[in-house]
Design brief:
alpha/beta; Nucleotidyltransferase, domain 5; 2 domains; 5-stranded mixed sheet; about 25% strand
């Protein structure tokens, strides 16, 4: 794979903060292509200072001086973290955009992790050019969702927290639950199918895109879910959050070259 020059004007650093790992890469936002992906374990506890320090290590290793797009496993409004389902509670109320930008001395944009994945798939992946309602569902440490209509994001949908069969979907359907409780694939797939079906019954999306860490096991479940609409696997795989964060940063950080 051709590496991206960090000094290229189309190169933006995308950072994806997850419950177990923090990943970063350079992204060519003109092509939606990430390269040089690196990863560090999410610090425990995942406090603002600890997470920002880890992001700093990754960004320093990647090099360059362009803007940074960063995801959080949380509701994020105007750069401020509002919830903390899979990150330390001390993040709530923190203006993450300011905290990261000051620590790294680089412009930064912060958004919800599933929203970033949805942006990436709508621009360069499985939902590219798709009109109508598209629902992105990321399955990993928890469940994240991104809702788009004609390619326009409805931010912070948080549909992983609905009840399905008297269980909170975020815990019942997550990949971490499958692994930790040794849930057989058939039983877990039935849970996923029930969850997706319930979402379809409420939102009537034309397309559901499955992303997150679970995509590496897509062959085990994709042919056995039928929620009432087309279901596709994220084309950008587990890089979707990184790419979407970079796209958001490129779109929202003002140009500094006088153009």
């Amino acid at each position: 794979m051709t590496m991206i020059d960090p000094l290229d004007p189309n190169a933006v650093v995308g950072v994806d903060v997850g419950g177990t790992g923090i990943k970063a890469a350079h992204v060519d936002v003109s092509e939606g292509r990430a390269s040089g992906r690196i990863r560090l374990e999410t610090p425990q506890p995942a406090t603002p200072d600890a997470v920002v320090a880890t992001i700093g290590q990754l960004v320093h290793q990647l090099g360059g001086d362009g803007p940074i797009g960063c995801t959080m496993p949380a509701v994020v409004t105007d750069g401020t973290v509002r919830t903390a389902a899979h990150i330390d509670q001390s993040w709530i109320g923190v203006h993450a955009t300011t905290a990261i930008a000051r620590a790294l001395d680089r412009p930064c944009v912060v958004l919800n992790d599933a929203d970033a994945a949805g942006i990436a798939e709508a621009n360069f992946g499985a939902a590219r050019g798709h009109n109508g309602v598209v629902l992105m569902v990321t399955v990993g440490t928890g469940i994240g969702t991104a809702l788009l209509n004609d390619g326009v994001l409805v931010a912070n949908s948080e549909l992983g927290h609905i009840m399905v069969n008297n269980h909170v979907a975020d815990a019942w359907v997550s990949d971490s639950t499958r692994v930790d409780r040794n849930v057989p694939w058939k039983r877990w797939t039935n849970r996923l199918d029930r969850y997706l079906t319930q979402l379809h019954e409420v939102l009537w999306p034309d397309l559901i895109v499955i992303g997150g860490g679970i995509v590496k096991h897509a062959h085990r479940f994709i042919d056995r879910v039928d929620p009432g609409c087309e279901v596709r696997i994220a084309e950008l795989g587990n890089l979707a959050g990184i790419v979407g964060a970079a796209i958001a940063a490129h779109a929202h950080v003002p140009a500094t070259d006088g153009s």
